[in-house]
Amino acid sequence: MTAIPTIVVDADACPVKREIVEIARARGAPVLMVASHDHRLQAEDGVSIMQVDRSDQSVDLYIANHIKRGDIVVTQDFGLATIVLAKDALALSPRGQQYDDRNIDYLMERRHELAKRRRGGGRTKGPKAMSDEDRIRFQQKLTKVLESRQENAEP
């Protein structure tokens, strides 16, 4: 059995921070928002803030070095998601996609191919705008994951 998981957020560009806080508060789960000093985040009840330097991978490195087995990490970064999975934690995108061993290799390969195309002068589309449906899907997925983890937690 595991304790209630911490929700760790790659908060620099996370579009669902408010939703995470609301769901975590309703479920009694602690939240840790990790962001560079370039972003203003405010600690509040149940939400801890860790600000790191602005270098390229500081947020990812902090998260990778501090997550525990069973934590839930919210990130858009496929590379960080790979590390999270290797540490036996759960990784979710802000759109509600759960990264797992079945999809992470494909996502990393696709990211690599698009980067090669850009380096060669090609153009690629960025991600589509976050929709209300994306937010709802994320809220449903995070709630479901927390409920599942809490059912298996020690009393």
From TrEMBL:
Region named Disordered: 115-134
Cross-referenced PANTHER family: UPF0178 PROTEIN YAII
Pfam families, alphabetized: DUF188
The protein, known as: UPF0178 protein GXP70_10375
Compositional bias per record (Basic residues), positions renumbered to this chain: 115-126
Organism field: Paenibacillus lycopersici
Recorded family membership: Belongs to the UPF0178 family.
